[in-house]
Amino acid sequence: MIRxxxxxxxIIIALGNTGxxxxxxxxxxxxxxxxxMWNKLEDTRGALMGIYGLTRSAMADNNSxxxxxxxxxxxxxxxxxxxxxxxxxxxxxxSYPVLDGMSNWRRWYAVINSANIFLERVGDxxxxxxxxxxxxxxxxxxxxxxxxxxxxxxxxxxxxxxxxIISSHxxxxxxxxxxxxxxxxxxAEQEILAAAADLPYKYSANDIQQPGNYYNENETRWAGAxxxxxxxxxxxxHIAAWQGNYPDVATYTKFVLDNYGxxxxxxxxxxxxxxxGGFFYEKKYNHxxxxxxxxxxxxxxxxxxxxxxxxxxxxxxxxxxxxxxxKDSILSIFNEVKDERxxxxxxxxxxxxxxxxxxxxxxxxxxxxxxxxxxxxxxTFRFFSxxxxxxxxxxxxxxxxxxxxxxxxxxxxxxxLNIIRELRKLDRYDETINGNLVDQIFRERRRELMGEGHRxxxxxxxxxxxxxxxxxxxxxxxxGIYWPIAQDNLNQNGLLTQNSYWK
Length: 503
Prior knowledge:
By secondary structure, this protein is mainly α. Helices cover 49% and strands 3% of the residues. The chain has a two-stranded antiparallel ribbon. The chain is globular. Helix 11 (229-242) packs antiparallel against helix 12 and helix 19 runs antiparallel to helix 20 (455-466).
């Protein structure tokens, strides 16, 4: 993700991977490594980039980001993988290695521990290296606080109540009971608000909060790679939406929509969204919060990308995709003419293959995200480098529409919905034609953000608002929306209790 950080990343991984298990001894090599770590500016850069790297790894591991957010929703089906069928069927305690790994929060506590250590030790570098300025330290601390709070928000959406740890204890986690998620989210909100005050709109771009070249690199180097002020407000909007606090969703999304130009962001054309060398390729300012794999830096892999799950012939040399969407599902979701993402012409043929290739074959291939190597279309080399994008401007615009609709500000909700509809060449929303406004906002989120990890959480918010599906509401009320806690976590910490739904 970021160059020149390997030494710091390895140290952070070594410290972070202690998880929730106490370290009983510290060998001399580790002590020497820590002693030599926090002395110079290069150490803070390496350590900070290590937190980013661990966050990206936590999301990519086992393709968790997409299995949590897109596979569990049931929009996709799996023709060959029994473990993914278990996820689709909400059998999350089935005995499969992928499910076991996804039930284990250790990788997220590695992120938290690395951030805790950074925040405790960054002052040592400030005292030891005169090159490390007060402003550099302030911006670094803001990023570490943001990433730690983001990790807690991410975990709360997966497991509900989680142990709350904001001190490294010298690399050792003490056993703690699970903290009520409302308290964790309240803390995360305040942490991100504090971080937002110190984060710039852009790095190395003479922003008032980060003047000069950040770590002696120019603006191009950092464009879209790091958390910025708009990243913070976008995540704040998602935290508030998860809590059902729609007045705050409206406030946070308004900030983003009023200021996105300051962060060099804008709305995406449909072509840029879905072409191989477009939005998901490398790092971009339009990744409001993204974790990129830069092929130019030899960064990418055949696993840890949605393409591993979705692509097959004719896009790549793979006969059957791990997941695909049935024709009936595609046509029920993309049910309006002229949609640039997917629609049929008057003869019943696809008018575009931006979102789906091989529509008339046995397996329609979800091809919206298809970054092979450096954005090429070579089907013989299944090496992917697409970025993991948590949020973008279109997501926040639709989140604002959702908030305004719930708050009764109907025209404002319609205006924001229509920004996206018109962007994709759909007619403006008409209640007599399109039906309930909230329903249409979530339908548009389903189309626009497909394959970007949002669907499961959108379904939960939708049912909390509309309360139309008694079975799903029962799942919410009984805690079945959360994942079971891995047995390894329970064995390591005797104070933990399993999520009640999975006992």
